[in-house]
Specification:
heterodimer; A: 112 residues; mainly beta; 7-stranded mixed β-sheet; 4-stranded antiparallel β-sheet; 11 strands; 0% helix; B: 112 residues; 6-stranded mixed β-sheet; 5-stranded antiparallel β-sheet; globular
């Protein structure tokens, strides 16, 4: 069974641009969550989707948004990029919202 | 607000040694607790999930225990190997939903 996949794996953007990251969960998983990982802040929760509905949102500015499609694939978008947005963005999926979480390899975003 | 602490922050041991990693959390009203490992620049690999009603879980050389009342969990690694070198992360799930609160991790180095 294929694991969680994330595309692209690496991205370089400049300040002010916007970016869209994609996550495909494990087949059959309907819950998708996003996390940001930085050396200074560690792993921080961004948002959670289940059956195309956002169930939970972390403490991030409105520049961070996401959505989930009917096939459970999810995208997150960051508008007006700032240098501090440079991070590893991780996506996790689970069969049900309170089930075991399985993470993808992440997207490394660098903002110049 | 839930806070998760992991001790020690870093650990270096010779191959073959048994070791214990510690995780503590401030709010005992958790739904479950999950241990992960992360290799440099990679995503998270799920090691063990302990439901709030369970006291421990075992997988191969790994054993994780949970004491909700005292807000503690330990990950025991038997007969450590160089391939166990990684950062180990503890995460708690507080309410029904996918949101995880992570500790800062323990960076483990097993020397041949």
């Amino acid at each position: 069974k294929a694991g969680v996949t994330q595309t692209p794996r690496y991205l370089i953007k400049t300040r002010g641009q916007q970016v869209t990251l994609s996550c495909s969960p494990i087949s059959g998983h309907r819950s998708v969550s996003w996390y940001q990982q930085t050396p200074g802040q560690g792993l921080q929760f961004l948002f959670e989707y289940f059956s195309e509905t956002q169930r939970n949102k972390g403490n991030f500015p409105g520049r961070f948004s996401g959505r989930q499609f009917s096939n459970s694939r999810s995208e997150m978008n960051v508008s007006t990029l700032e240098l501090g947005d440079s991070a590893l963005y991780l996506c996790a999926s689970s069969l049900i919202p309170d089930g075991e979480q399985f993470f993808g390899p992440g997207t490394r975003l660098t903002v110049l | 607000k839930q806070e998760v602490t992991q001790i020690p922050a870093a650990l270096s041991v010779p191959e073959g040694e048994n070791l214990v990693l510690n995780c503590s959390f401030t709010d005992s009203a958790i739904y479950n607790l999950q241990w992960f490992r992360q290799d440099p620049g990679k995503g998270l690999t799920s090691l063990l999930l302990i439901q709030s009603s369970q006291r421990e879980q075992t997988s191969g050389r790994l054993n994780a225990s949970l004491d909700k009342s005292s807000g503690r969990s330990t990950l025991y690694i038997a007969a450590s190997q160089p391939g166990d070198s990684a950062t180990y992360l503890c995460a708690v799930q507080e309410t029904s939903g996918s949101r995880l609160t992570f500790g800062e991790g323990t960076q483990l180095t097993v020397n041949p």
